[in-house]
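anyone seen this seq b4? input:
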Amino acid sequence: MTVEGLAVEMHGIGKRFGAVNALENVSLEVAKGEIHALVGENGAGKTTLMRILYGALQADSGEIRVEGNSVRFGKAADGIAAGIGMVSQHYSIIPELTCLQNLMLGAEHGFLMNLAQSAERAEALAQRMGFEFDWHDEARHLSPAGAQKLEILKLLWRQARIMILDEPTAMLSPADSDALFASLRQLASDGATILIVTHRLPEVLEHCRRVTVLRGGKWVAAKPVADTNASELAELIVGHAVEAAPDLGDVKLGELLLSAKGIRARGRRGDEALKGLDFDIRSGEVLGIAGVDGSGQRELFWALAGVLPLESGSIRWENQDWTHASSKSRLDQGLRLIPEDRHEEGVVDDWPLEDNVAIGLQRLPELSKGPLLDLQSRSGLASRVADRFKTKHGGVRQPMRSLSGGNQQRFVAARALEVRPRLILAFQPARGLDIEATRQVYKGIREACAHGAAAVVVSFDLDEILENCDRVVAMCGGRLAAPSAGKERDRAEIGRLMVGAS
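predicted toks r here
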């Protein structure tokens, strides 16, 4: 590929939020037609820098040039007009609108629209990327991965020449991730410039041409991907050598905690999502569930959490019948959740950290005085939760929305582990987390299990599951399948089970 000139030049960028110095003298250069990675720890300033490029934030200092022209954007609309588009970690999909309406929203030309022609163009764009949509279905039915794909299509709909994708594969299966990058490479070869904010170093090394590293709001390094490796990048990101992943070894299992027999349940659309699942989990065990997105993982998570009723089958916890037990009673007995979508299921953005820490735990003795919430205990718990995984924040009375996405995830994960966990349900627990935080979260899960808890982990990152879970099963079409003897940790074997191949 021949690169001609620079699409993006940012020099001396500075940005403060009150007393917090988010960016200090940061520079970035991205060539036209390349896929460029931006990496760093949570809170390193990556998303802030990209939002400044996009126009959603304004820099306090520095210069920005786009395709050779000096620019100063006052709002995101200015960036869009200049051919820049951004997909953030927090989707802008409106659930009540159809997929087509979401795609077109904000980019309508006049009052009259030919919906048939728009649907044809939308389908052509989707096929170009290898995506599939029911354009007339409400967006509420999309999975997080589907919403991510729709957000990417919105950039193409607006004919963006410079595309910023913030953690684009955090909710995608390995197969979907590979397909996405294949599409992005085609877009780059057609002249698009693509900036990827990611924590997944294998993706950087495999798919990107150059990489820029930020740490603590400062520029650290920029180099061709061909001239570096995962170990060097990890050390540049965290500022010191990174420990190797722990050897799981032989796990000492305890008593049977959870037993699911023949459980069946329907999804939100009325389809049979769980088709007679049987599995047990014992104290001390971390069970990993691998699978392509939409294979029934969410419904299993909801059924175990008590928010999706079963059509048949049973769930037993220790010596108690959980089949029809309420979520409240399960939480009282030690159920703790790291939900897939923290914004929809885990936090309230406008509430302070000290209020968010009590969500789901407010009735526990540690946080209550009879029928009333113990405010002092709540504040103390919020501080301990924030400290557990080094959540960067401006005080426990600050709103959750003031935290970066990665720091919100740290807080949600720590909350699930802080107060007497017995069964940990974790759906994409490392979503949006950097290398160090990912290891901290999984170490926390394993420590809880070493003290008698059990964990069920769902992730679309097969390597993450293999590295951190004691036992791995694959989910496909609402059913579970275990790898054959001798291939319990064989990536290819589990990958075949994920797609239903024998």
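The chain has a mean pLDDT of 90. The CA atoms of residues 354 and 382 lie 5 Å apart. kinda curious what u guys think
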